[in-house]
Write a structure and sequence with these properties.
Order of helices and strands: HEEEEEEEEE
Structural class: alpha+beta
Number of helices: 1
Shape: rod-shaped
Number of domains: 1
Radius of gyration: 31 Å
Distance between the termini: 120 Å
Helix content: 25-40%
C-alpha cells in the first residue's frame, strides 16, 4: 500500500486575504496622508521663507542706500529740520551721487507696504515689499542729522518695521518686528 502524505498545510482563506488587504490599505492610507501633509507643510514653509527673504532684501537695500547717502530728513522736505527723534513714516535723503545732481530718494510707508522713490517726489514711487508682506507700521527715526548745530552725534537712521507675512494661500501668518540702524559713512561730527 502506497503511503500518501497528509495534507495538514492549508492556504489562506478568502476572508483572511480580505482582512490582510484591508489592514494593508489602512496603513498605506495613513502613511500617504502623513507624507502629503509633510510635503504641503514644506511647500508653505518655503513660500514663507521666500516672503521673509524679500523683506530682508528690501531692508538691507534701504540700509545700504541710507548709509552711503547723507542729508537725512525725517518727515520733512526741509533740510533745516532733519531730526525726528519721535519718528515719522516718511524719510528723505540725498543718495550717493558722484555728479552731485541727483534727486532725493524717499522711503515711505502707507497702504501696508514700504515704497521707494528716486525722483524726489512721492508721485513715482514703487513698492519695495511683496504683497504677501503686510506692514502694520514703519517708523524712521533720524538722529544727529543737523548740520552746523554743534551736535557731536554721527547722523544715523533707525528703521522699525512691524507686520505679518504669509504665503499666498496660507491661513496662518507670521508676525515680525524688524529694527535696523544705518549710520552715515561720511564722518559728520
Amino acid at each position: 500500500m502506497p503511503i500518501t502524505p497528509r495534507r495538514s498545510e492549508r492556504g489562506f482563506t478568502l476572508v483572511e486575504m480580505i482582512v490582510a488587504v484591508a489592514l494593508f490599505s489602512i496603513v498605506m492610507l495613513v502613511a500617504i496622508s502623513a507624507l502629503l501633509s509633510l510635503v504641503d507643510a514644506n511647500r508653505k514653509a518655503q513660500a514663507l521663507q521666500s516672503v521673509i527673504n524679500n523683506l530682508n532684501i528690501a531692508v538691507d537695500g534701504m540700509v545700504r542706500s541710507i548709509r552711503e547717502g547723507g542729508t537725512y530728513r525725517c518727515g520733512s522736505v526741509n533740510p533745516a529740520d532733519p531730526d525726528c527723534p519721535s519718528g515719522g513714516n516718511i524719510f528723505y535723503f540725498q543718495p550717493y551721487c558722484p555728479s552731485g545732481s541727483c534727486a532725493d530718494w524717499i522711503y515711505d510707508f502707507h497702504d501696508g507696504r514700504i515704497w521707494k522713490s528716486e525722483s524726489g517726489s512721492t508721485a513715482g514711487e514703487l513698492p519695495l515689499t511683496a504683497p504677501e508682506v503686510t506692514i502694520d507700521s514703519a517708523t524712521f527715526y533720524v538722529i544727529g542729522a543737523k548740520r552746523g548745530g554743534g551736535d557731536i552725534t554721527q547722523p544715523k537712521v533707525v528703521i522699525v518695521i512691524k507686520g505679518s507675512a504669509g504665503a499666498a494661500k496660507a491661513t496662518v501668518r507670521t508676525t515680525f518686528h524688524v529694527q535696523s540702524t544705518a549710520v552715515q559713512r561720511v564722518l559728520d561730527i
